[in-house]
Amino acid sequence: MKRVNEEKLEYVYEEYGVALLNGESFTGESIEKSGDTIISLTTFTNGAENGPKKEWYENGQIRLMGETRFPKGAVGTWKKWSETGQLTEKKIFDEEGNLIRRQQWDMQGTLLKDDSYDPLW
């Protein structure tokens, strides 16, 4: 799979945020770096976010992980962690991109919220 630095992509927002590389719809992975450390990876298909999305803190700890599916947006399970590695949030989306469950934890791992939602469609 083709991988490019995020700075090389051009975004056309009038067309659902299409990502272009050299004027063509981009298929592959874009990465963002801080120094030599990858801090973001986004997958595109024909210019649209479609596939795994990951973000890391500069210390290498995973920050966010989930998957997008064009044109629905976020699908499946998305997780966020603190810089120390504590899971702080988990969201579950159905195949249509509807948020159906959201859980949040404090820095000690105590569950603070556990909300369920009915799909919009």
Description:
This protein is mainly beta. It is built from no helices and 12 strands. The model has no long low-confidence stretch (mean pLDDT 94).
Q: Would you kindly provide a brief summary of this structure?
A:
The chain has 121 residues and is mainly β. The chain has no helices and 12 strands.
Q: Mind sketching the topology for me?
A:
Blueprint: E1 3-5, E2 10-12, E3 18-21, E4 24-25, E5 28-34, E6 37-45, E7 48-56, E8 62-69, E9 73-81, E10 87-93, E11 99-105, E12 111-116
Parallel strand pairs: 1-5
Antiparallel strand pairs: 2-3, 3-4, 5-6, 6-7, 7-8, 8-9, 9-10, 10-11, 11-12
Q: Supply the number of helical segments.
A: 0
Helix content: under 10%
* N-to-C SSE string, H for helix and E for strand: EEEEEEEEEEEE
> Shape from CA axes?
flat
Count every beta strand, where a strand is a DSSP E run of 2 or more residues. 12
Mean pLDDT: 94
The side-by-side strand order for the widest beta sheet comes to 1-5-6-7-8-9-10-11-12
Unreliable stretches (pLDDT < 50, length at least 5) are none
Secondary-structure-based class equals mainly beta
Number of structural units classed as domains: 1
Radius of gyration computed on alpha carbons: 16 Å
β-strand percent reads: over 45%
Biggest sheet architecture: 9 strands, mixed
> Span from first to last CA?
34 Å
